[in-house]
């Protein structure tokens, strides 16, 4: 992504949401994006997803301009899950595969594989309204993964969950990332979440969003399931957390 900017044009005004974004997303990395409210995080995700086109600069995938339309190569998980309420979980996860005419036996194998990965195999016949918030998010993640995207884009996926569920979901997505080696682009307001998940952490300035800090971390490769809490009090972790909080609030 070279010198990317986006200015929204409304009836009344022009709003420059992003300016001069230079970013290289390595394959297999877990990119976490932090920044003050309204700094353009979602806008950046929407550009990568193909929902918006940058008004400046270029976005490349394998050295080619990225397709301006959303496709199955870029799977999006939103804060509020977007499952079809009239379909059960299995059929929700299967949806994209069916649309692409994947044969039924193969579909079933893929659906079961990802439902197992997110721990929902025994709930595959349930409707989404029968699941908790965390389970719905896990179903959404399985649905995106079933399409085998090049990149998984997540917009504050755990923002609406309680603290305990959030911690379990963080363990779950970290395991999935390590198991699948997928590239993940993850927006969050939660500095600790970014430090516990991200191999590449990006901090944006207030609007117009520019990258003011980039940080590389090996921590997500090391954290054992259920053990993330102990890292929060480590000296290096606390120093990084405070530095980022100061940057965001200054
Ligand atoms: N469709 C739009 N038309 C005009 N302005 C928009 C549009 N979408 C977003 N904006 C403006 O662009 C700026 C960036 O918005 P964006 O949603 O990308 O920020 P954000 O960092 O994701 O915010 P938050 O953390 O609060 O979710 C904001 O000032 C917002 O009001």
Automatic annotation (TrEMBL):
Residues 1-231 form the ABC transporter domain. Pfam families: ABC_tran (PF00005). The keyword S-adenosyl-L-methionine does not apply. One of its GO terms (molecular function) is ATP binding. Keywords: ATP-binding, Nucleotide-binding, Translocase, Transport. It comes from the Bacteria. InterPro entries: AAA+_ATPase, ABC_transporter-like_ATP-bd, ABC_transporter-like_CS, ABC_transporter_ATP-bind, P-loop_NTPase. PANTHER family: ALIPHATIC SULFONATES IMPORT ATP-BINDING PROTEIN SSUB, TAURINE IMPORT ATP-BINDING PROTEIN-RELATED. This is ABC transporter ATP-binding protein.
């Amino acid at each position: 992504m070279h010198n990317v900017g986006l200015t929204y044009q409304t009836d009344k005004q022009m709003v420059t949401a992003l300016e001069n974004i230079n970013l290289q997303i390595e394959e297999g990395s877990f990119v976490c994006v932090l920044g003050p409210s309204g700094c353009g995080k979602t806008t950046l995700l929407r550009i990568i997803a193909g929902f918006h086109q940058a008004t400046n600069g270029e976005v490349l995938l394998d050295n080619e301009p990225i397709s301006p339309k959303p496709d199955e190569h870029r799977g999006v998980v939103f804060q509020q899950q977007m499952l079809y309420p009239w379909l059960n979980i299995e059929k929700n996860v299967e949806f994209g595969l069916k649309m692409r005419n994947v044969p039924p036996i193969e579909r079933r194998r893929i659906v079961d594989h990802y439902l197992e990965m997110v721990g929902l195999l025994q709930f595959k016949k349930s409707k989404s309204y029968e699941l908790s918030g965390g389970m719905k998010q896990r179903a959404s993640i399985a649905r995106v993964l079933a399409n085998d995207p090049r990149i998984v884009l997540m917009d504050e996926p755990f923002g609406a969950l309680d603290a305990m569920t959030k911690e379990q979901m963080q363990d779950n997505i970290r395991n999935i990332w390590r198991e699948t080696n997928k590239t993940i682009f993850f927006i969050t307001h939660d500095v600790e979440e970014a430090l516990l998940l991200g191999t590449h952490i990006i901090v944006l300035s207030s609007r117009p969003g520019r990258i003011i800090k980039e940080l590389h971390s090996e921590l997500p490769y090391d954290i054992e399931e259920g053990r993330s809490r102990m890292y929060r009090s480590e000296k290096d972790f606390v120093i990084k957390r405070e530095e980022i909080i100061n940057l965001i609030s200054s």
